[in-house]
Amino acid sequence: SAFKSMKLKDSADNQEKALETILEEMQKQHDNVAKVVKALQNGDKAVVKSFEAELKEAVEANKTALKDLHGNQKGAVNFTMKAAGTMTIAGNYSGGTVGLTSWDPEFARIVRRQPFMRELVRIIATDNMYIAWAEQKNADPGVADTVAEGATKPQTDFDIVEATAKVEKIAVWIKVSKEALADIKFLQGEINTELRELIELKLDEQILSGNGTSPNLKGILSVAPTFAAVSTLALLVPTPNRFDVLVAAVAQLAAANFYGDTVVINPSDYYAMQLTKDAEGRYLLPPFQSVDGMTVAGLRLVANNGVTVGTFLAGDFKKATLAIREEMNIQVGYVNDDFIKNLITILAELRAVLFVKSNWYNAFVKGTFSTAITALTKP
Predict the structure, then answer these.
(1) Which residues have CB under 8 Å from 284's CB, separation 6+?
(2) Closest CA to 369 of 241, 261, 251
(3) Which H or E element spans position 368?
(4) Alpha-carbon span 324 to 334, nearest angstrom
(5) Nearest CA to 207 among 364, 355, 358, 314?
(6) Is there a contact between 326 and 351 (Cβ–Cβ < 8 Å)?
(7) How far is the CA of 321 from the CAs of 167, 169, 203, 333, 360, in angstroms?
């Protein structure tokens, strides 16, 4: 019993000594770190081995002692460590940049202009390839008159002419690998956005300026009359500017019994209008312009880069009709040997037709500011 007590006491003494040794070593390391910090504060930039490298060397040097410690479960091993070195990205980080990188999830798309013409015109649906309508033509004489007692009353007649417009297709597609869709998490959404954007921009362009030769739509500019100053304004306006041109355009519409609601111009012309000054350098605010500058002579100003710089198109845009046969849709499929190559085709398309009835052509007027200014300028 006494021997057992002595053995337990001996074991406890060894554990206490081992603990004291560890505490002493920790104090040494604390002192070393303090020295390094002080040295850095004093501008000492000497390069020393990293803590990890020093620890590895200490372990190698004490392999035998560590083995004995493991087998006997007693005693202690001392590690004498040098001061830790200064860690830098260049000196201590390798293998990549992931740990140094933050990911901004906002995808930077190519900046394109916003489509705008679809918002201005009348829109209907159709389920056929053609749109047809009837127009009154050749009214003869097309007037009534006063009639004296016993006199012959005037007779008139007119023709009914059918007109048609054909639905056309706008489409675009992207081919992409199955792996790309799976591994780039945002790719599918961005492809869909890209295809929709390209379709909308092409439709916008066609509504405005399509030449009418199939498969092109017949855009408004292809039927709108060119600016011609009415007689009360032609060569009679002193020092006319862009504002005056728009008033003259409204006068031309009114002369044809139409009343415009909108004028589309390029942003460059819009801002040039805002900077118009008088001969003394004072900014102009014509009485027929709204304070915010977005309405001139009753016309809502719409500025978009889809309109050529220096030109304008004014009119009653509800007299142009966009008939949608097939609204924009996105389809996915395989083409030829795509299946065995893990390739996928993503297609977007739209079918529509734009038409202005010929009796309503005069609801629009197009022109260039420079030519119109010349036509208005008083000699």
Answers:
(1) 241, 243, 276, 277, 278
(2) 241
(3) strand 364-368
(4) 27
(5) 355
(6) yes
(7) 12, 16, 13, 33, 11
In the chain, the amino acid numbered 63 is: K
Distance CA 114, CA 109 (A): 13
What residues have CB less than 8 Å from 318, skipping those under 6 apart? Answer: 121, 122, 261
Contact 156, 141 (CB under 8 A): yes
Backbone phi, then psi, for 228, in 5-degree steps?
-145, 115
Residue that has been written with the tokens 């020093």 in this structure: 54
E-strand ranges in 168-256 read: 168-177
Number of H helices, E strands in the chain: 10, 11
Copy the structure tokens of residue 121. 């015109």
pLDDT confidence tier of residue 81, bands split at 50, 70 and 90: low
Q: Are strands 299-303 and 262-265 parallel, antiparallel or unpaired?
A: parallel
Model confidence, pTM: 0.76
Q: Is 103 exposed, middle or buried (0-12, 13-18, 19+ CB in 10 A)?
A: exposed
**Which backbone phi and psi does 345 adopt, to 5 degrees?**
-100, 125
Q: What are phi and psi of 71, to 5 degrees?
A: -80, -40
Q: What angle do CA 332, 337, 343 make, to 5 degrees?
A: 45
pLDDT digits (tens, 9 = 90+) for 20-78: 666 676 667 666 656 655 655 565 544 445 555 665 666 666 666 656 655 555 556 56
315: tokens are 């009119």
> Which residues lie below 8 Å from residue 266, measured CB to CB, with a gap of 6+?
303, 304, 305, 307, 308, 309, 310, 311
* Tokens 């040494």, residue located: 28
Report yes or no: 164 and 130 within 8 Å, Cβ to Cβ.
Answer: yes
Cα(159)–Cα(144) distance, integer angstroms: 17
